[in-house]
Amino acid sequence: VEDSFEPPSLPRELGQVIVSDYTPEAACRLVAELAVASIPGAESAYLTVRNAGHPTCAASTDHTSETVGTFEVELGAGPSLDSMRLTERQSSPSLVTERRWPEFTNQALYSGVASVLAQPLTAHESVFGALTVCSTHESAFKESSFTEAAGLALQAAVVIANSNLYWQATELSDQLREALESRAVIDQAKGILMARDGVSPDEAFAILLKTSQTGNMKVRDIALQLVAGAQERAPRKAVG
Known about the structure:
By secondary structure, the protein is an alpha+beta fold. The chain is 54% helix and 15% strand. The protein has helices at residues 24-38, 63-75, 79-86, 102-110, 143-197, 201-215, 219-233, and strands at residues 44-51, 54-60, 90-92, 115-123, 126-135. The protein starts with 23 loop residues before the first helix and ends in a 7-residue tail after the last helix.
């Protein structure tokens, strides 16, 4: 899947995204880029997403937002985490006078960020992340910014959640196919050993297992070598 892309210019284009074209990481980057393009006052953005129960900075639009987003996650306090915890928008018109997240605020101000707006991402009645936009100016986000961020977050949550589901299903399908292919070639190898050495199925598998341990190779790879060797030694039928 190609992760480089040109973000669409209008929020409504998120509804036209084909999730099979975007990995979850690419979908998050798309949303971050689109937030900057569509939310009045936004100069940079980052997405915070729960991964295996732990929040992580999943995407950012530049070095500043990446630094601020990563620091917030490492610190465990800030606007995006509060928006996820409280399931509602969090905003600060001036980080100079902000008192809720002192350590986060210090890092954000050091990075040049003066105001922030964080909107939770909700899918299937569960908050799984947050979209946070930043500005180098105080009071950068107005009522129109809140409205645009809320609308974008609704669409973004669906796109990101569906992308996760699609790629998880694809990965599971690939794993199942690989498992079936592995089982088939191992069964072939067992059959070769049973015919060649007169051993039982369990004894044949034990031979494969011991060989894999001795050679520090996967059982499937040992089986592939055995099957390939048997095919090379098999007499070829005469043509004509």
